[in-house]
Known about the structure:
The chain contains nine helices and nine strands.
Amino acid sequence: MNIYAHRGIFDNKNIVENTIKSFREALKINVNIELDVRVTKDKEIVVFHDKDLKRLTSIDKDVKDLTYDELSRITLLNTTDTIPKFEDVLKLVDGKVKILIEFKESFSREILKKIDRLLLDYSGEVLLQSFNPFLIKKIATTSLKRYEQGILLTNKYKGLRRLFYDVYIYKYIIKRKNYNFIACPKELVFKVREVTDKKIFIWTIKTKEEFIKYKKYSNNLICEKKGIII
C-alpha cells in the first residue's frame, strides 16, 4: 500500500500545508508525500497549491507576480511557516519517501528544464501529475519522461462542459500510452475502472471510513490528516 500525505501532514493552524514543517511531519512516520509546484516572477520553483495568496495570507496577489524574495518574507496563516523552494523540499526529503509532484501551471520548456536539473541531483522515487493533458504530452518529449506520469481527473464540471469533458477524457485521454497512472477523485474511481486497467491514485481520502472503503480499489491513496494514515 502506497499512502501519500496530501500536501504533507498539516492542520493549517500550527502547521501549514505544503511547507517544510508539513513534510517533516510526513517523514516522521515514513509516509510518501504529495505536493504542488508553481513558478515565481523570477523563475524560482516553489511549493504552493493555490494560484494566489488570498486563502493562506489574505494578500490578493498571484504567486507568479512576486519574486521568491518577496514570497519568502510572507508568513502563512498565523504561523511562522513560509512558502518553500522546491529544491529545499528535495533536500529535506532526500529520497526517504516517494514524492508525487503536481504541476499546477502550463510550464514552459525553460521551466521544465529547470525542474529537470533539480531532479537530476535527486536520487529518490518521483512521480509527476497534472490536470493538463497538453502539459503531460510536453513532458513526454523531455528528459522528464524518465519519471512515471499521470493525468489528474476532476468532477467539478457541470452541464455541457461536463458532457464534453467526459467524452474527451474517458474515450481518448486516459487511454493514451504515455500515462502510467490515472489520479482521480474518490467519487470517480468506479467509472475510471470501467474504462482502463491502468494504475489508479485515489484522492483525497479524509476519514478512516473512506480509507477502509477505497483501499480495496487501489494501492495508491492520497490522504489528508495524520489520524487516517493507518
